Amino acid sequence: MKMLNKWAVPTALMLAVVIIVPGCGGKVTGQTNAAGAVSVQTIKLGQPVSAGLSGKIIPDQDIKVVSKVSGKVAQMNVQEGSKVKKGDVLAQIETGDFTQQVKQAESALQASQAKLVDTQQGARKQEIDGLQSAVSAAQGAYQQATATVDQAKAAFDLATSTYNRLRNAYDSNSGVTQEDLDKGTLDYEKAKAAYEQAQGAQKAAEAQLQGANSKLQLAKIGATDNTLKALQADVDRLQAGLDLANSNLSNATITAPIDGVIAKKSISEGELAQPGVQLLSLVNMDQVQVELSVEDSQISQVKVGTPVNVTVQNLPGQTFKGEIAFVSPVSNTNSNTFPVKVKVDNKDGQLFAGMVAEVKLNASQENRLEVPKSAIIKKDQKEYVYVDDNNTAHLVEVQTEEKNQDWVYVKANDKIKASQQIIVNPSDKLAEGTTVKAE
Description:
alpha+beta; conserved putative lor/sdh protein from methanococcus maripaludis s2 fold; Elongation Factor Tu (Ef-tu), domain 3; Four Helix Bundle (Hemerythrin (Met), subunit A); six-stranded mixed β-sheet; six-stranded antiparallel barrel; elongated
């Protein structure tokens, strides 16, 4: 009895019907063998696989409106849900400080431009005459200083001679007292100091004369290229400052960059706007996008410009025309899927951001059947399957597309279609026209 149980279970398994269940395929059926027929295992193909991809709808344009300048919001012209056109004023920031900055920059620029123009035109006759008078005055002062030097030198020479005579007489005991020598020495020191002072005054007068002459000559020949370049650079610098001040004033008026609808308002009148901080969210839903993540086994079939049909569960019975707008060449992080975006017209406003949409590729990519890899025969660089047609094996060429490690997709045609029986694990005994019986 124990021996019977030992073999009964495997025998029962061998006689059982073989079942293979694909993701969207059919099942293997079993039939009684007939004499002379080759025993095979078959699988019934399921319904065609629609090339459908699920994704989420997002706005085609989603603009975060920010301020470029800091200031108190003086006026807010929109609310959430407001429809706006490009260029409409959304908000106004107080402009008092910016207006003052513009006026200051304008004044500084005008002064610098005037100085440059005057320098380019050269000195006027009145200025030349004034500089000539200054040269004449400096010349007179220099001549007077020179005369003073001559007088001081004569006095110094006399004091030197007197001192030398007194010193010689004193040293030879010729009746010159110490008091006489001290007086002569003091007169010598005074004369020497007066002479040196006169020489210093002469040099100062000479420098003034040279300076006056230089100014006169510069006025006559005009400014140098370097001077003009420096003045022009100052004008350019102040012009840039004025442009910046005008830009800040202009940026205090915040306008709509696109047509759209205000989706979110993050600030109110009286609050302080900060540069770069979002004030409003503006979306354009006239056209929307569907974001998809496509498996690496399918990405080769997804091409930019391919037309697609889009359906939304919340809108039964409606199909929207779309087009693949973007296929990323880089997969998502930590997955084998690739970002894909589909553009869909939404002028009727039926599609909302956040809706889940089903994207179906065009007809050339639909009506695919799932077939187990164990049914594929490779011969002469082509792929085939055996179809069981009324217990007769027929070899049919197919074109496959990878699904996973066990299954492939094949395109349905007049020779291979849904509900048809194909042979899995075909043996070498099979050939075109072989009589078969499903095991």
